[in-house]
Amino acid sequence: MFIYVGCAGGMTSSMFCQRIIKAIDSANSPLRAVFDSVGTIIRRKKEFEGNYDLIFAYGGINLIQAYNAYDIGTIFDVVFIAPQMRHMTKSKQEILKDYPVIVKDIEMKTFGTMDGATAYNNLLDELIGLDYERSYVSNKHPETKNGDKNIELLVLGADRNDSFTDSFFSVWQDLDLRVLTESYSLEALYDFHPEETFDIRVLFGNAAQLSKEEFPKLSRRIDGVLMTPFTNPSLEKKKQWFDDYNIPVFVFDTRHFAIKNGELEAHRFQRILEGISYDSEYTREISPAEWETPPPVKVRKTALFGLISWE
To answer: What PANTHER family does UniProt report for this protein, alphabetically (predicted)?
Structure first.
């Protein structure tokens, strides 16, 4: 069970988690428990869940934002909010409402005690009940990649207001496809509240906005990538990232792009769009080992009776 304890900045919740783990170890409990920072637990989820029964994460409650709601909402079973941050409970519940995670206040009698054993005893019965409740709401979790959304495409290297892209997406709209275009940012990708219904959401971005650290979050939403034929070397290198996550990348035809003929190109992409839609319906989350497996522990070597050491 993954438990996130959030306070103002993470210091108080860290001390709370430390006392809980110490109490569990001292009681010779059959439960295997561990605690670490929320960032570490998110990155090393598979390692933790295979070796522990209770995994406590500490951190600031304001870490929970729309762009990382997927991580928090699908990894953690419960988010406890410290008494001093109770005024933020409703806003965090709203961010995580579409995910099978319970968000609630932790009682002062549990969080405020300096006695780890007392806090653990108070918490144990509640965790059992919350685990049962969480299993009941878990059917809210989307089974496939676009189970909770429409198609989302990322366009790289093209201008949103260019005549080529304007004519390209006008053809799709003439085919009764409701196309929504906007600028890309990771925050905008997740913190999204459209006023109108749509079929395809198109986000325009550039290579500089793609970082390896944030790429797993991007990959959970983006169904396909459209690229201009004249891309910079940086973007060419990052194409491999999309391959790692099985996100199809399509390059606009050089001739059509050069003469700004978006109409011809749009018709060529009709079949491609159908394939993207079909694939996303049946694609589950992908976690390449190269990206999400923690690096091996470095072994320090010594020589000359410890006078020289290296890794």
So the answer is: PTS SYSTEM N,N'-DIACETYLCHITOBIOSE-SPECIFIC EIIB COMPONENT
